[in-house]
Write a structure and sequence with these properties.
Elements: E1 5-9, H1 19-26, E2 31-37, H2 49-68, E3 73-77, H3 80-91, E4 95-99, H4 104-119, E5 123-127, H5 149-158, H6 198-203, H7 208-222, H8 226-229, H9 242-246, H10 252-260, H11 266-284, H12 307-314, H13 321-333, H14 338-351, H15 356-366, H16 374-383, H17 398-405, H18 410-416, H19 427-443
Parallel strand pairs: 1-2, 1-4, 2-3, 4-5
The chain binds flavin-adenine dinucleotide (FAD).
Length: about 450
């Protein structure tokens, strides 16, 4: 009698450096992999359109790679806790392994499932696979968590170095007759009417092998120049690893290990630090996507939403060239350069006076790297309401930003050559209006949110 091991894949769609998969193989029994599309559990945020496109291709790649090594991937849809328990009893699993998640709803599901499975006598173990440091391991001298990045990252750097990554398994002992799986195509993750994913297909190749190639190329060609050129959207100087990291096609341990010895890699590594900081912030503030981290921002007097302004921003029709270029890059490729993300976000919040949550929702739907932590964290950072945020009164001037970071107009002419040229708002006037709205926040009480 065998007692198979079940590996529940989530945001870790890779074979290499996957502690849950390794534990399952080490257990010495047949291994079955599972992915659950959970659109039912309360509090789990439904994926946006671009993320669904990525997920489809990443799962196709993962399934193929598992099968090449003797394993199998079962796809099921529904409330994760129920689906996992059903599959456990279907295959009479003796153990279940997964790598941890850090969002509030996900943690509730995982901990309730762990309790239930263990009560049934099933070995259930979770692992650290998606962050360099577990959120509860980085604390201040008085045991609280950090709300400022610099000391946070200093504390991370003083901890024992992140562990070395381990290679992918050469073979996976399969379960023989795998139980029924949904057909990936039936999940409808790909857009059809219309198929708007042409630009995504041109820009990206989801999956673990492509993630590794992307890292290699960055290390060979761009890392040394990263600090100088990372802020220039036309330079192509950044790693473009964000969607691969978001889906766990490459582990942060692998990225860390490859980059850490390279001279001058500190700036790049500290961006991985921002990723850690965002996820740790989400762990401690699960409502990051809906609640201002700084409660005095609840008093911000947002004017009634002007749908025409929101629409112009979303579709790159604001008449402000750098903003329109960024929004069009996003629409076409599912990605936008970080500097431009900051500029378009500042423009929405501080020139159009539209609540950061509306921008966060649009990014959630259109970014291939949209994730529960980095997206709301960075929106709150730009809006001034977040952890260690840019001060609200720092309003990016999109024209000066363009002069400084796109001096030869390469990025703007690539993406916004035919965009309108008459701005929908006056940058100076709207900046003044934003600053006077902010006066209300300054007067609001600053007591921490309970
Ligand atoms: C309004 C706004 C929304 C954002 N939403 C997301 C999001 O949903 N998902 C996402 O991964 N990033 C988000 N970012 C952060 C950043 O823009 C992207 O991570 C970066 O542009 C990805 O490109 P890259 O992989 O070439 O980055 P690189 O410069 O090569 O950086 C390497 C890695 O570090 C991490 N990183 C870099 N910058 C940041 C940052 N500011 N915060 C957190 N992690 C960072 C990413 O994982 C990135 O892949 C957002 C930024 C802003 C201003």
């Amino acid at each position: 009698m065998t007692s198979p091991s079940l590996v529940w894949f989530r945001d870790d769609l890779r074979l290499a450096d996957n502690p849950a998969l390794r534990a399952a193989i080490d257990r010495g029994e047949p291994v079955l992999a599972l992915y659950v599309l959970d659109e039912e559990s309360p509090g789990v945020r439904p994926l946006g359109g671009a993320a669904r496109w990525w997920l489809h291709h990443s799962l196709a790649s993962l399934g193929e790679r598992l099968r090449e090594r003797g394993g199998d991937l079962v796809l099921r849809r529904g409330a994760a806790e129920r689906v996992v328990r059903e599959l456990v009893s279907e295959i009479d699993a003796g153990a279940v392994f997964w790598n941890r998640r850090y969002g509030g709803a996900e943690r509730e599901i995982d901990s309730s499932l762990k309790t239930a499975l263990r009560a049934d006598g099933i070995e259930t173990v979770s692992f650290a696979g998606s962050l360099l440091h577990e959120p509860w391991t980085v604390t201040t001298g008085s045991g609280t968590h950090y709300s400022v990045y610099t000391p946070f990252w200093r504390a991370c750097l003083s901890l024992p170095a992140p562990r070395a990554p381990f290679p992918e398994p050469r073979s996976i002992p399969g379960v023989g007759d795998a139980p029924a799986s949904d057909d990936l195509g039936d999940w409808g993750l790909l857009p059809t009417r219309p198929d708007w994913a042409g630009g995504l297909r041109e820009a990206w190749e989801p999956g673990e092998p492509a993630a590794r190639r992307r890292l290699r190329r960055f290390l060979d060609e761009d890392l040394r120049d990263y600090d100088r050129a990372r802020d220039e959207p036309a330079a192509g100087a950044t790693s473009l690893l964000s969607p691969h990291l978001r889906w766990g096609e490459i582990s942060p341990f692998a990225v860390w290990q490859e980059a850490v010895g390279v001279e001058g890699a500190g700036g790049f590594l500290s961006e991985l630090g921002w990723r850690e900081f965002a996820w740790h912030t989400l762990y401690h503030s699960p409502d990051l996507a809906t609640e201002n981290l700084r409660p005095e921002f609840d008093a911000f007097p947002w004017p009634p939403l002007d749908p025409a302004h929101l629409d112009a921003w979303q579709h790159g029709e604001t008449g402000v060239p750098l903003v329109d270029a960024g929004m069009r890059e996003l629409w076409h490729t599912g990605y936008m350069h970080n500097r431009v993300r900051m500029v378009v976000a500042s423009f929405l919040v501080k020139n159009l006076l539209i609540d950061w949550r509306r921008g966060e929702e649009w990014f959630w739907d259109t970014l291939v790297d949209a994730d529960e932590a980095n997206n709301p964290f960075n929106w709150q950072w730009v809006a001034g309401s977040g952890a260690d945020a840019a001060p609200y009164f720092r309003v990016f001037n999109p024209e000066l930003q363009a002069k400084k970071f796109d001096p030869q107009n390469l990025y703007i002419s690539r993406w916004a050559a035919d965009a309108p040229t008459e701005p929908i708002v006056d940058l100076g006037e709207t900046r003044k209006a934003a600053l006077s709205a902010y006066d209300v926040v300054k007067r609001a009480p600053k007591s921490p949110r309970e």
